[in-house]
Amino acid sequence: MTELWRFLQTGYQDAFTNMAIDRAILEAHREGLVPPTLRVYGWAPPAISIGYFQGMNEEVDVQACHKQGVDCVRRITGGGAVFHDKELTYSLVVSESHPMISHNILESYARICGALVRGLDGLGIQSSFTPINDIVVGSQKISGNAQTRKQGVVLQHGTILLDVDVEMMFTLLQVPNEKIKDKLISDVRQRVTSCSRVLGRPVSFDDVSRNIRHGFEQTFAVQLREGTLNAKERDWTDKYRREIFNQHAWNYKR
């Protein structure tokens, strides 16, 4: 019998709500209240998220973000600063003991990112996983991913770029030397791509969502059933947004 997982489309939320939902699903799965869950979502307004071990002021031009109406939030996962705008973001919450999830971090990245590669293939984009946690088209990055494990539960989330605005990104991130900013922008343009750029046409959030869903179903041999956050998850989302992710002490603690 095919295993049933939950598929959530939670739409476009602010950064603090998005991070709170991921944390709430993790806790609900740890408590045995929900099955493994794949969520897809967007960001409104755009946001910068930093890795758990980073410092906000060291990575982000916070004043520029405030002027542009861009949220700034710290993730519970590691990795670098990410500008979230024209993209689909996914999160997968699943038990570390699941037979399809390896205890080896790199192997689990390869399996989960392999589902994204299958999804992109359905769009007509030939991509591949490159360790530790990227998906590339040729030599250009189209997806970055991050993972954490808490009390036996894996949370991996990441982005798939629908389009990319490199100039905007560099107005929001700290640049070590303004004199080399143009070179940095040029380098990133060469190293990063997007669905729209690869296919030469606009690609919608829904197109990518549908194909990523199929990619996970095929890779993990499961059926993803549409669902919603339950009452406990909604309560935890409100709590984590209010008490953690929208708090200066969390976002600027390093």
What does this entry look like structurally?
This protein has 254 residues and is α/β, with parallel strands linked by helices. It has one domain: BirA Bifunctional Protein, domain 2, CATH 3.30.930. 41% of the residues lie in helices and 28% in strands. It has 10 helices and 11 strands. The strands form 2 sheets. It has an 8-stranded mixed sheet, sandwiched between helices. Strands 4-3-5 form a 3-stranded mixed sheet, with helices on both faces. Helix 1 packs across helix 9. The termini are far apart. The model has no long low-confidence stretch (mean pLDDT 96).
Write a short abstract of this structure.
This protein is an alpha/beta fold and about 250 residues long. The chain has ten helices and eleven strands.
Detail the topology: elements first, then pairings.
Layout: E1 3-13, H1 15-30, E2 37-43, E3 47-50, H2 56-59, H3 62-68, E4 71-74, E5 82-84, E6 87-95, H4 105-123, E7 128-130, E8 134-137, E9 140-150, E10 153-161, H5 166-172, H6 181-191, H7 195-199, H8 205-220, E11 222-226, H9 231-245, H10 248-251
Parallel strand pairs: 1-2, 1-11, 3-4
Antiparallel strand pairs: 2-6, 3-5, 6-10, 7-8, 8-9, 9-10
Helix pairs in contact: 1-9, 4-8
